[in-house]
Specification:
- It is a single chain.
- This protein is of the alpha/beta class.
- The protein has 3 helices and 9 strands.
- The strands form 3 sheets. The protein has a 3-stranded antiparallel sheet with strand order 1-2-3, with no helix packed on it. The chain has a 3-stranded mixed sheet with strand order 4-7-9, covered by helices on one side. A 3-stranded mixed sheet has the order 5-6-8, covered by helices on one side.
- Helix 1 packs across helix 2.
- The protein is elongated.
Amino acid sequence: MTSRSAIRTRIVWTGETRMDGAYSRGHLWMPDGGHAIKASASPHLVPIPHADPLALDPEEALLGALASCHMLFFLHLASQEGLVVRIYEDAAEGRLATDADGGMSLAWARLSPSVDFEAMLGDDALVDLHARAHARCIVARSLRTRVEIAPRPATTTLRI
């Protein structure tokens, strides 16, 4: 397997761990070339105040990475076909579950993108475009989780 380019993210946590688990899970993500992102364990998994509900948690980040990757390939494919996209919005959701071995994982994810095109696109063409974007999405190709793509009907920008 050949690597096309390296990606890097620095993670920094400071504090003091305790045997009773009463320590902050808050930390910073510093992606290569990006701004620091406040992160924490999910409050669904670690109780507040040890988890910060206002910070991004790894599970939300995974779902966001999946949705973002899908969108970027969708926009790329649409632009190659001469389609003008005005707005792309996704209401992605996922579900954490216990695996057969007792560990937790993202067991299911659904992307529900809504796309506003300059000109109308038929439902079959929209579904095909999403399927091709999903097939090329690096994050989706890296997951073992089943991912559903449930596009909402395409819309057009009304110009007056």
